[in-house]
Amino acid sequence: MNDYILAIDVGGTNTVFGLVSKDGKIFAEASIPTHAERTAVDLFKRIATEIKKDIFQIEEGKLLAVGVGAPNANFYSGKVENPPNLGWGTVDLVKILKDQFHVPAWITNDANASALGELLFGAGKDFKNFIVVTLGTGLGSGVVVDGELLYGSNGFAGEMGHMCIDFHGRKCTCGKRGCLEGYVSATGLVRTVAELMGKRITASKLRSVPYDAITSELVYNYALEGDPIALEAFEYTAHLLGVSCANVAMLTAPEAFIFCGGLANASELLFEQTKKYMEMHLIENFRGQIKILPSGMDNNPAVLGAAALAWMEINR
Amino acid sequence: MNDYILAIDVGGTNTVFGLVSKDGKIFAEASIPTHAERTAVDLFKRIATEIKKDIFQIEEGKLLAVGVGAPNANFYSGKVENPPNLGWGTVDLVKILKDQFHVPAWITNDANASALGELLFGAGKDFKNFIVVTLGTGLGSGVVVDGELLYGSNGFAGEMGHMCIDFHGRKCTCGKRGCLEGYVSATGLVRTVAELMGKRITASKLRSVPYDAITSELVYNYALEGDPIALEAFEYTAHLLGVSCANVAMLTAPEAFIFCGGLANASELLFEQTKKYMEMHLIENFRGQIKILPSGMDNNPAVLGAAALAWMEINR
Fold first, then answer.
1. Is B121 inside a domain boundary?
2. Chain A residues near any Cβ of chain B (below 8 Å)
3. Distance, in angstroms, between A108 CA and closest chain B CA?
4. Residue B18 β-bridge partners
5. Cβ(B253)–Cβ(B289) under 8 Å?
6. Whole-structure pTM value
7. Is B252's CB within 8 Å of A164's CB?
8. How many structural domains does chain B have?
9. CATH no. for residue B195?
10. Chain CA centroid to CA B240, Å
11. ipTM
12. Tens digits of per-residue pLDDT, A94-145?
């Protein structure tokens, strides 16, 4: 067995981790409840206990480093700073990891980890300039420039989800107005459905479902059946995502956008239309050049992303 | 006399050029009409003739390279591609320069040249991550990431002026709708004045001036006198610029924005207000960090920018 990274993806509900080789093979993998109300030390102590179990079989000297993807994780400071879904406050996560695992450790946020995963193991392998957009409950992004992740001066670059698309627009959970993730995300899609039910008089199966029970999966299934509100909700989502991709593209000139996360599974409703709107909002010398692609990581992209982070750093 | 670069800034009306040393001193300088309807070869032949004159005194072997800032100039291809204000079509400018001056040559667009000028000789000297915004007839920008200009995959990165701020908004000269430069530029300011004269019923000296005669300087002077329409036009400009700076900042996490160009001279009406709106549109972990600064190049920033381009390349 080759050398490996312990790669950890910290989620609000579950934390997934595995041992990942340099070529992106996951040797062993497990998931435990995060227990968001407990401390960070508690979580990583439990992971340290888990990886002593038989399925992991860590051999002396084979574990080279730890890579972690976590909300609000700052690559530069090594700290997780007040993550919205975890009761950790601000903690020095890299120190906790080194204390627990006795190897070098790096951390970054989930979307940045995804971008590094695509760069090393996924759909970004053939590109030096691309942008990963994670379309889940919210919208995250990671920007790769000349083969390197763009961290920027504060370590938090790539917050496409909070770029303002309409400053008279929807209230966002961050306190601002008109943030892209209030429109282009699983929750944004549901908000669009609600607005459209008010604006339009067309019949829709969605009118018989309480707001709280509408999910992006339901909207997707109804759209495939031809429901007009569901179809228009996807078109509107693609429109705003297309405008935003054009905006980001004219600033950074990428070769491709890579869409991942749950909502990106609705590819037949989202990819072509987003591309159409992106092209409409590009100036001439950017048109016809930029690809829109699905993730190239089949299983466990979040764990592979965290692994990619550590592999990139350890090979410098 | 030290070694120097022949630095050339090609404008729609005049072309300015000079000899610039490594520390940003301009030894000799001249300006000739561009004659936009003639060819590129014609222009650079005339410059070659000019620099044989006494004031330039080019000594054998002292001219190391040529750097050119020109509209639609592509650093990668060495070509100028259909510049909107010049009748050149697409020309291989680097080849023309090498044929004419027999030294290495590099080209880029005006805003990128400005960014490199600030990086080497101006307000960007102390930063590794910043964005230069040129506020003239239009709006250009150049993005510096980790001490390097961001060209992106096609060489055209940094087109902040055509990022869409309102997709139901004003028609832009590029054919699209709602581009930032339709609002935040000398012409954009005048368009805002016209819109506000329609929307408001307040008295204003601007109501007695034909649209064609309203300039950004006039609006600036009236604003200083307290004219309500002129003041509101500047506030609106600052608002949209602030939102856009926040958007760009959350993507690239710069240390500073540097505003240059004619409209940036209205600093007392633009800088503080832009900063206020930028802060309002940033998420928490970006607030209170990003400076808004005037250009640090006192004389001839365009020529210094073109020189910076060549100095950076020749020193690689």
1. no
2. 72, 81, 127-129, 141, 143, 145, 150-160, 162-164, 166-167, 174, 176, 243, 246-248, 250-255, 280-281, 283-286, 289
3. 15
4. B7, B29
5. no
6. 0.94
7. no
8. 2
9. 3.30.420.40
10. 18
11. 0.94
12. 999 999 999 999 999 999 999 999 999 999 999 999 999 999 999 999 999 9
